[in-house]
Known about the structure:
Elements: H1 4-36, E1 54-56, H2 58-62, E2 73-76, E3 79-82, H3 87-90, H4 105-109, H5 115-119, H6 128-144, E4 147-151, H7 154-159
Parallel strand pairs: 1-4
Antiparallel strand pairs: 2-3, 3-4
Amino acid sequence: xxxxxxxxxxxxxxxxxxxxxxxxxxxxxxxxxxxxxxxxxxxxxxxxxxxxxxxxxxxxxxxxxxxxxxxxxxxxxxxxxxxxxxxxxxxxxxxxxxxxxxxxxxxxxxxxxxxxxxxxxxxxxxxxxxxxxxxxxxxxxxxxxxxxxxxxxxxxxxxx
Length: 160
């Protein structure tokens, strides 16, 4: 019915068409998968409106512990972060509520939830590893939470 040469040509065309169909199916599936799966991205610093920063004494900071205010602030090395958006972590009775309204540097550096580490703000005896841990926490907080001020000593605030 067909000559041998015609059969060879038809076989070549069939193989070529099959390969093209396979390539199109793979490309289509790849496109569909990329459309319906979330692509991981590098963490981006939070973008918020310009927040008026202010100074806090330790006593003023403590008022923002989630118990006496809806706002929850944490200080790390004197920088005050608004962590109110994560009240499920820092709110009263939650896992990290011990940090709320306080200077948490030492406790974070030591990966500690002990009251004595939260109440002690001396960083002079931290090991290199603890300082590195603290710096990692600072980087994490800088990416996640707005900075709303700094902690100052009472006499510094009176001088302003």
